[in-house]
Amino acid sequence: MSAATAPINTFTITAPDDWHIHLRDGQALATTVPHAAANFRRAICMPNLVPPVKTAADAIAYRERILAQVPNDSISQQFEPLMTLYLTESLTAADIETAVDSGVVKAVKLYPAGATTNSADGVTNINNCTDVFAKMEALGLPLLVHGEVTHHHIDIFDREKRFIDEVMVNLIDKFPKLKIVFEHITTSDAADFVLSQGKNVAATITPQHLLFNRNHLLVGGIKPHFYCLPILKRQSHQKVLLDVATSGNPKFFIGTDSAPHATHTKENACGCAGCYSASIALPLYAQAFDSVGKLDKLEGFTSIHGAKFYGLPINSDKVTLVREAWQVPEHYPYLDGKDLTPLMAGQTLDWKVMPFNLAV
Ligand SMILES: NC(=O)N[C@@H](CC(=O)O)C(=O)O
Ligand SMILES: [Zn+2]
Ligand SMILES: [Zn+2]
Description:
Blueprint: E1 10-14, E2 18-21, H1 29-39, E3 42-45, H2 56-67, E4 80-86, H3 93-102, E5 105-110, H4 130-139, E6 143-145, H5 159-174, E7 180-182, H6 188-196, E8 201-205, H7 207-211, H8 214-218, H9 235-245, E9 252-254, H10 263-266, H11 281-291, H12 298-310, E10 318-327, E11 332-334, E12 338-340, E13 348-354, H13 356-359
Parallel strand pairs: 2-3, 3-4, 4-5, 5-6, 6-7, 7-8, 8-9
Antiparallel strand pairs: 1-10, 10-13, 11-12
One zinc ion binds near residues 22 and 46.
InterPro entries: Amidohydro-rel, DHOdimr, Dihydroorotase_CS, Metal_Hydrolase
Keywords: Hydrolase, Metal-binding, Pyrimidine biosynthesis, Zinc
Pfam families: Amidohydro_1
């Protein structure tokens, strides 16, 4: 075999961040924070707690609860939780100023009411948020969007596309300079839409939407651990997501959407939406990029593009990935005597993050 075709077996990249994670609260933090802190230097922490993170004061208090669970080792100690506010129709422009002044709030999250887990307090009429959007646009505070319409008559597989047509287009029309992250995009429509917009519009992509499609969820029996929102789409969409993620375009970056739900709430007649991936996300992304021969584009996606979009410095330290097969744990302890089943539980992955013991 010539040197040019020899597979890469170990490589080192700038330490990654996660621009979309759910750490939950209370006892859940004892499981989720060590995984996040071992694998990411910074993480945008989603505000869909019960009750949600609605004010700068809530965000400051939540940040302290997260920091209290960061392990003592030198890698984890670098972990910086970046906080978000949950957009409600009662949030005001003054609240946005307070949030920016706090220094801990880095974005505001828009959940259409009823679109996903803990979104009941979200936005019903986006026109009630114009003052908030104007202030965010003026101050450069990003709006993070769960982009799905919620009308009962719209097919679940069409909800992202309909959101683009019915909401995103108008939003950008009214606030052309607003920084927007279209979170966890799942369709070629969303990828094309982001590509067609200016630099202020970017997108996160989860590992599951790069590696899987709806066949993985539904063929040969229903697989609740592949169920998340927005739902996995057909393979043609997966392919486009993989194309844009591995293209080197800075509009697309990591956002694991790691979203823990206790095993019994997913393996259930009415199973919760969300895949837990914080402990395995980097190997999963490596696997996805490797599958199309684009490992050289991984670092931009995991460690550079997001920081630049948020106007934050690039991490100065590095992580090493090694090509070595290992088995994902069947579960992790979670909450009081419950457990948490990660994505790919019991399956073999090709890549390990070093130091391995810390990461998983
Ligand atoms: N992605 C999911 O399926 N679930 C997330 C919510 C979200 O990000 O939409 C959760 O909080 O469980
Ligand atoms: Zn979401
Ligand atoms: Zn999410």
